[in-house]
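Exam prep: given the inputs below (a chain plus zinc ion), describe the expected output before reading on.
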Amino acid sequence: MIRIHRLYSTFLPSDRDRMEQVKTIFRQSFPGVADYADKIADQLEHPFAAQFLSSRRRVAVLDIDYHHGNGTQDIFYRRGDVLTVSLHGHPNIAYPYFSGFADETGEEGGKGFNLNLPLAEHTDGDGYLKALDRALAALRRYKPSCLIVSLGFDTLKGDPTGSFTLSTRTMTEIGRNIAKLGLPMLFVQEGGYNLRNLRSGVVRLFDGVAQGVASSHP
Ligand SMILES: [Zn+2]
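Solution:
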């Protein structure tokens, strides 16, 4: 049986009613790890989610924010039990400048479990989707049992902090292709600094996710 729970919510930890709604949906979506639902009251961030779920599931993190996720990379860099994959502006031209290069592939037990796909300054939708295919191929090889998506809308054209030229139509493709992996997914939003892009990007991405989930469970 498949269930699609679509909830997009921003809230403060002091908003108890909203927090209970999120917890309920999380429990339904990740049966067996319901105790995580209580922990999100403290902090809902993707490294935290990955760390917690990794003791129970084979976890992969896919970071599609414009900026390289240097913190996430650091946390899991020496671990082979959490695959981290990131698409981002090349550090030669984009924050944080010092990390996100393709030769950062992990160390010690984590060697080969960190994949960076740094992209050219004015990457468009076609270029981005090609890179996403590489990311998804790596995820398929790893065979995770759940996926945490570090989500950013600062890849869209017109973002004041980004240089890519993605359209909201590309967001639908991104959502659809990720969902076709057929995995339980948790999206945690990070960037996105153009409010109009944020509104339309969220709707278009999750439309794609719903399409992808439906097609992977006919
Ligand atoms: Zn960002």
